[in-house]
From TrEMBL:
Signal peptide: none annotated. The keyword Phosphoprotein does not apply. Belongs to the MIP/aquaporin (TC 1.A.8) family. PIP (TC 1.A.8.11) subfamily. The keyword Transmembrane applies. One of its GO terms (molecular function) is water channel activity. The chain crosses the membrane at residues 39-64, 76-103, 123-145, 204-224, 251-272. One of its GO terms (cellular component) is plasma membrane. Coiled coil: none annotated. It is found in: Membrane. It holds the Pfam family MIP. Keywords: Membrane, Transmembrane, Transmembrane helix, Transport. This is Aquaporin PIP2 9a. InterPro entries: Aquaporin-like (IPR023271), Aquaporin_transptr (IPR034294), MIP (IPR000425), MIP_CS (IPR022357).
Amino acid sequence: MTKEVEVAREQAAEFSAKDYTDPPPAPLVDFEELTQWSLYRAVIAEFIATLLFLYVTVLTVIGYKVQSDVKADGDICGGVGILGIAWAFGGMIFILVYCTAGISGGHINPAVTFGLFLARKVSLIRAVLYMVAQCLGAICGVGLVKGFQSAYYVRYGGGANVMAPGHTKGVGLAAEIIGTFVLVYTVFSATDPKRNARDSHVPVLAPLPIGFAVFMVHLATIPITGTGINPARSFGAAVIYNQDKAWDEHWIFWVGPFIGAFAAAVYHQFILRAGAIKALGSFRSNA
């Protein structure tokens, strides 16, 4: 009996021991990165991924509006519908995160990059270059859509994010904050080194919950803002569409996602991972 108790204690101690290692925080500014090909390869990956993301998703939006326009001999029940549009956005994020995670981290979204920068997962230089690449990729992706659907692009709104009738800008801002919080919180959870160490299947499946988060948020917020939660997506569509209404409300699709990303970073790092308490040295984490 005594031996059994000792074995149980040893097993408990072994279980409670920290069996993972948090990566060191990225330097705030690392000029040495500018001399490394891996940085530029990652920036190119972010550019191409965002280009493909906008190309497929905005083309899906325009195609649905063409097919469901009864004034142009369309069918009100035609096309993929809102459900199909949400699948297009979520599915493309799943595919592209899976493809680029090992190269750039698979951000494809300035809000995600901003959240990971706040958590010291990427340096300032990398974060800025990622955001620039994402915005340029979005512009090019939507530009391809306009080239392929020139007859319908402007007529059906160009895939630009605007407030739906009946909703105030305050409601739209809140929807973007909450939607981006869901997305960035999922990114932190899916890429948490603690989960990766204890559940070997998590790194393989990480793109799946991120894609599903995008899918679910689109279902909830397409009727309100058309769903931004990605400033590059909104910026690329606004640049190519270039109409007053899109620009008048464009600030919502930058301010909302960045606030949501900030809230998600603080929640995950300082509450779930007890970062604030650990920093004060008053709590010994056994997680």
